[in-house]
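**User:** I keep going back and forth on a fold encoding question. It is easy to fool oneself when nobody else works the same problem. Could you pick a protein and write out its sequence and tokenised fold? Could you put it straight underneath, so I can go through it closely?

**Assistant:**
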Amino acid sequence: MTSLSHSPDSGSDPDSGSGSGSPVRHAYGSDPAQYGELYLPTSGRKPGTVVVLHGGFWRAMYGVELGAPLAADLARRGWVVWNLEYRRVGAGGGWPNTLADVATGIDHLATLKADGTELDLTDVVAIGHSAGGHLATWAAGRAELPAAAPGAQPVVRLTGVVAQAGVLDLERAAREEVGGTAVPDLLGGPITEFAQRYREASPQAQLPITVPVRCVHSPDDQNVPFDQSVDYVKAAKAAGDDAELLQVPGDHFALIDTGSEAWATVLRLLPGLLRN
């Protein structure tokens, strides 16, 4: 486990872009929730693409607006960013739609162009918070899924993940009632009835995935237990994967506060994952 201490960025980074402007919305399906917001830097574009996946325990009351401040900050610093919305529980989501949407939304990057050219998909890193951390890490392991599973056979493969307080072991999260009934609501019921769904949807059950995963989490998190990240990293390393736990201060939501030390830790990770 690594603990990083870094002062939050004040916006004076000389390598930052001057501003990203307004994002452009692109639909990847016919449902109102099947879209992403593409943010482009106005100057100093860096290699790679970043996918932002918001949290909210997969529930319809929480949407893409949670990821917008992160996406705007990343674009200001020079990255192309895809802030992805998806169907959530209570509005057409749940099994298998939520997972299928995330997969389709990421694959949709292969069809998009920026400034008349294709996006740089050599390196694609997903940043996800809470339930979004689950979705980001799950998406990184799509190539290992059975052919009939939602999200299998990816077109665009993630090359790195930053899981911010991610829900990474769905079986344990359901047993411990993380988010109340959030996990069984996502998967349609308990593991005793839907064991295969839990296996196909839980990042810890996918190991190994051969994609670097950085788990950023606070021991003071009262929403998603710190042990979700501790145990995932331990299991991933035992399986031979490149995984690391970075301990940060603050509560569950410090990770999506762009002025926080927790967010500064995420920013420090990206150049290594995007090889720039």
